[in-house]
């Protein structure tokens, strides 16, 4: 038997044991995790602060109509949707214009024609959207997300108001198209889970901070105090950086899970969000081995690797958000 094969086999067994022990130790923590369901609250808060929902879309003709339609179906009494058309070259612009005409004042379309120097595309688009937003709360989501429940905003707003949360992020349920995605994504999810344990994120005195850009609900006072998207204009993982800054500044940060059996909202898997960084066109086998490598690094060193989003500095992967 080749020596190299034996080494990899032993390494795989050891890594597997390390992660098995971690899962056993983390069991009680995971059972106590915060889960938001559409049935968590029965009605909107009274009074209901105005919410501005912001969606940045660049060449999202396959997703944007579903995204906006499910947002328009929300039962929250006072909200607006601001869709930012970020230099789209496909049918996104036409779709948004048509939807805006039918939706009336509920939907506003902001068009970005140029990328500001020194800015990443998504951050620049969100900045443009916030500049016209009128809500006391800002809800940031992605164009490839759809709301399964009409109570997403209602449930989220009840939680932040009743628990005095300034910055709430709800993790999405991912839609998978291929079998290999169902293999690689759970592996990457484990890496992120142990790096950013929700119960650590939700403790004010713990330095661990995390947010998922697919759903971030932020009090405007908090958003402005941390510098908004201006502060993170060159960050590829702006969600995690904003969460870290908010927590360091003393604002209430909270992460809640979105249970698959009672889904609030879901996002499409596009191959570029695994482990926060993407695989740059690797084959399914390459993606699988990449995630295993990151599990090994995380198991033995606990240090950040390519699979863990960096909170500070330039990302170790090619930047796609332009």
What is CATH's topology name of the domain at 34-172 and 212-270?
Answer: Spore Coat Polysaccharide Biosynthesis Protein SpsA, Chain A
The low-confidence parts are 269-291, 298-322
- Helices, by number, come to 11
What class would the helix/strand composition place it in? Answer: alpha/beta
- The overall strand count is 11
Strand order, main sheet: write it out. 1-10-7-9-5-2-3-4
Mass-distribution shape: globular
CATH superfamily of the domain at 34-172 and 212-270: Spore Coat Polysaccharide Biosynthesis Protein SpsA, Chain A
User: Any idea what the radius of gyration is?
Assistant: 20 Å
How helix-rich are the residues, as a percent range? 40-55%
Strand % is 15-25%
How far is the N terminus from the C terminus?
A: 48 Å
Q: Mind telling me the CATH class of the domain at 34-172 and 212-270?
A: Alpha Beta
Q: Roughly what is the average pLDDT, rounded to an integer?
A: 80
The CATH architecture of the domain at 34-172 and 212-270: Alpha-Beta Complex
The SSE string, one letter per element, is: HEEHEHEHEEHEEHHEHHHEEH
* Main beta-sheet strand count, sense and barrel state: 8 strands, mixed
């Amino acid at each position: 038997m080749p020596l190299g094969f034996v080494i990899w086999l032993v390494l795989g067994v050891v890594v597997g044991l390390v992660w098995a022990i971690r899962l056993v130790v983390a069991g009680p923590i995971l059972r106590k995790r915060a889960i938001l369901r559409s049935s968590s609250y029965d009605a909107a808060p009274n009074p209901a602060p105005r919410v501005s929902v912001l969606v940045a879309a660049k060449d999202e003709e396959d997703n944007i109509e579903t995204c906006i339609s499910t947002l328009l179906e929300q039962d929250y009494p006072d909200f607006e949707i601001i869709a930012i058309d970020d230099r789209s070259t496909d049918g996104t612009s036409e779709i948004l214009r048509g939807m805006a005409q039918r939706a009336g004042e509920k939907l506003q379309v902001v068009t970005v024609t140029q990328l500001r120097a020194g800015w990443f595309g998504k951050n620049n688009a969100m900045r443009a959207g916030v500049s016209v937003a009128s809500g006391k709360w800002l809800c940031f989501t992605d164009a490839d997300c759809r709301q399964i429940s009409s109570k997403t905003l209602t449930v989220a707003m009840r939680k932040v108001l009743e628990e005095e949360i300034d910055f709430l992020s709800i993790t999405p349920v991912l839609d998978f198209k291929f079998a290999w995605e169902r293999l690689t994504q759970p592996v990457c999810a484990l890496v992120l889970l142990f790096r950013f344990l929700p119960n650590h994120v939700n403790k004010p005195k713990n330095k661990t901070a995390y947010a998922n850009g697919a759903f971030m609900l932020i009090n405007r006072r908090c958003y402005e105090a941390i510098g908004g998207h201006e502060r993170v204009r060159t960050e590829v993982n702006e969600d995690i950086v904003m969460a870290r800054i908010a927590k360091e500044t003393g604002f209430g940060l909270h992460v809640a899970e979105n249970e698959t059996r009672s889904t609030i909202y879901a996002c499409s898997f596009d191959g570029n969000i695994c482990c926060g960084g993407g695989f740059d066109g690797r084959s399914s086998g390459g993606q699988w081995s990449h995630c295993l490598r990151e599990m090994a690094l995380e198991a033995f060193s606990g240090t950040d690797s390519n699979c863990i989003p960096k909170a500070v500095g330039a990302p170790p992967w090619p930047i796609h958000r332009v």
